[in-house]
Write a structure and sequence with these properties.
Layout lengths: L1 H15 L6 E7 L11 E7 L2 E8 L6 E3 L26 E6 L3 E14 L2 E14 L2 H4 L4 E4 L15 H9 L4 E8 L5 E7 L7 E9 L8 E8 L2 E11 L6 E3 L1 H11 L2 E5 L2 E6 L10 E5 L2 E5 L1 H4 E4 L2 E4 L1 E3 L4 E4 L1 H4 L2 E6 L4 E7 L4
Parallel strand pairs: 3-8, 4-7, 13-22, 14-21
Antiparallel strand pairs: 1-2, 1-10, 2-3, 2-6, 5-6, 6-7, 9-10, 9-23, 11-24, 12-13, 12-17, 14-22, 15-16, 16-20, 17-18, 19-20, 23-24
Bound molecules: 2-acetamido-2-deoxy-beta-D-glucopyranose (3 copies).
Organism: Periplaneta americana
Pfam family, one: Asp
Family: Belongs to the peptidase A1 family.
Length: about 350
């Protein structure tokens, strides 16, 4: 009897636990630090009584902040803010991958974290005494890992920021990005924590299930350039640390061949280059996801630095496409942790 009353009470409590409204975090693009690397968006984060600009990264699992004593790698860059602590340094040390190809090594630390109006106590993070250069090429101080919780990939198995905000601030287990290019040439964006906001998209969401427990990967039915299907049954995820779209060498080559660019070594990189005067007939690329076509025009695919025009489709290791900024400029993506799915809707271009 007691048990019955208790479970009835628990059920009632669950129903009456109304979720808080979603919270908007303004994002900004930093000036490029290195030629040919466009910066990614960063947003303001308060950790303890200190302020940082962090990349909210769907490909990382850990919150990573450089420590005051860090002088190697990315910590050498001017303008990187470091976290000062008067607490003794923990003996727990780890090395984690960040931002796709980078790394951070350091020790476990805890403090409260405030992002927009959300505030969680005892957020665990990696206080880095060594961090790869990626952080300064992006013009950021730090990384907030938005990877799936309980993946086993976070340093010290720490709960993610999203997990703590869901548990402590009672927001929905969902976040989304709106990125936009504006007629004045500026890029502006927001991260929405706690569910999508209708003002940022038009029409309905197309939802696709996540393919595993640990990543935001989903299936892409097919990829077409113009009217020609060049690949079917691919894996992808929306990577908020990437400016371009990267993918497996074979498929990227097929896309770039049909777009009509030519590989050239420029500095330390190979870029697929276009003649900037002959961009009129570059076809659009369409990703079919959940049976719906998501197309991207050449205006977005072609990157331009001065008189250098090059393809935004680039190689990366592995079998998975990383959909970066120029996909997100067109489509508002919802990372729905509650229902283990991704949602996509046409982004509202201007706000
Ligand atoms: C940090 O981690 C990287 C990658 O795991 C490793 O190559 C490097 O030696 C480490 N640095 C230190 C100081 O432990
Ligand atoms: C966040 O909460 C901590 C207590 O855990 C408090 O000291 C701090 O002032 C709060 N910060 C903000 C920005 O709300
Ligand atoms: C994308 O598809 C829509 C609907 O078919 C069409 O109106 C639009 O022009 C297409 N955009 C590109 C860049 O092909």
């Amino acid at each position: 009897m007691t048990f019955l009353i208790q479970s009835a009470f628990v059920a009632l409590a669950a129903i009456s636990a109304v979720l808080c409204d979603p919270v908007v975090v303004p994002l900004q693009k930093r000036a490029p630090v290195e030629e040919y690397i466009n910066t990614q968006y960063v947003g303001p984060v308060q950790l303890g009584n200190q302020y940082f600009l962090c990349v909210f990264d769907t490909s990382s699992y850990t919150t990573v902040i450089p420590s005051a004593s860090c002088v190697s790698g990315g910590c050498n860059c001017a303008n990187v803010h470091k976290y000062y602590s008067n607490k003794p340094v923990s003996n727990n040390v780890a090395s984690v991958p960040i931002l796709g190809s980078g790394y951070a090594n350091g020790s476990e630390a805890h403090d409260y974290i405030a992002v927009s109006t959300l505030n969680a106590t005892n957020q665990g993070f990696l206080l880095a005494d060594d961090i790869s250069n990626d952080i300064c090429s992006l013009g950021a101080d730090c990384v907030i890992g938005l990877g799936r919780p309980k993946s086993g990939r976070a340093a010290f198995n720490l709960p993610t920021v999203m997990e703590n905000f869901v548990n402590q601030d009672n927001i929905a287990n969902s976040f989304s990005f709106h990125h936009g290019r504006y007629p004045d040439g500026q890029h502006r964006g927001v991260l929405v924590l706690g569910g999508p906001i209708p003002a940022y998209y038009r029409g309905d969401f197309t939802y696709v299930p996540l393919v595993d427990q640990d990543t935001w990967n989903f299936k892409v039915d097919s990829i077409s350039v113009g009217n020609e299907v060049i690949a079917t049954d691919q894996l992808a995820f929306v990577d908020s640390s990437k400016y371009v779209i990267t993918g497996p060498a074979e498929e990227i080559k097929k896309i770039n061949d049909r777009l009509g660019c030519t590989n050239k070594v420029i500095g330390s990189r190979t870029l697929c280059v276009f003649d900037c005067d002959k961009l009129d007939n570059v076809p659009s690329v369409t990703f079919t996801i959940g049976g719906v076509a998501f197309n991207i025009s050449s205006t977005y695919q072609i990157q331009q630095n001065g008189d250098l025009c090059y393809s935004g489709f680039q190689y990366s290791a592995g079998k998975c496409f990383h959909f970066g900024d120029f996909f997100m400029d067109n489509y508002y993506g919802e990372f729905d942790g509650q229902n283990k799915r991704m949602g996509f809707a046409k982004s509202v271009e201007e706000l």
